[in-house]
Design goal:
This protein is α/β, with parallel strands linked by helices and 176 residues long. The protein has five helices and six strands; from the N terminus they run E-E-H-H-E-E-H-E-H-E-H. The chain has one domain: Leucine Aminopeptidase, subunit E, domain 1 (3-Layer(aba) Sandwich), CATH 3.40.220. Helix 3 packs parallel to helix 4 and helix 4 packs across helix 5.
Length: 176
Amino acid sequence: MKRIEIIRGDITKVQADAIVNAANSFLMGGGGVDGAIHFAGGPEIIKECMRIVAMQGECPTGQAVVTGAGLLPAKFVIHTVGPVWEGGMQGEPLLLAACYSNSLGLAAKLHCQSVAFPNISTGIYGYPKKQAAAIAFEAVETFLGGNSSIEDVIFVCFDEENYRLLLAEQRLRAGQ
């Protein structure tokens, strides 16, 4: 049975086959979730990211690439580049949805059964959190409806506001 779980916590400590990193296009670590994952995962992740960028160039917004997880409790880190909020008229909703669906697509190819997501683009990239929660849920539910390999998706919220918004979105979709 497929399950979507919402927790408050630190994504670097979550037990899942893959954790998703809200990366920048250079895949070189930064602030927020990206910096935390690179720090906790150790130097092997940045080395793999450097190899990916050397081979293919920057990772475009909405796309995803995978590395090992280094010292993290996951098997893989899926790095996806979320959109910077520019008012919503620059394709941001489609790009944000693509982050979730492309990350899940990679996870399925890697035979992952569990995937943990941060709140992509809602930090320094400025995406409105309520809109981001609705897009995240829609993209995940749509993907899970057409894929049988992934059993568990965990939204790992660092802050209380994202946590409450995702719980509200989950209740809304459950008809409660």
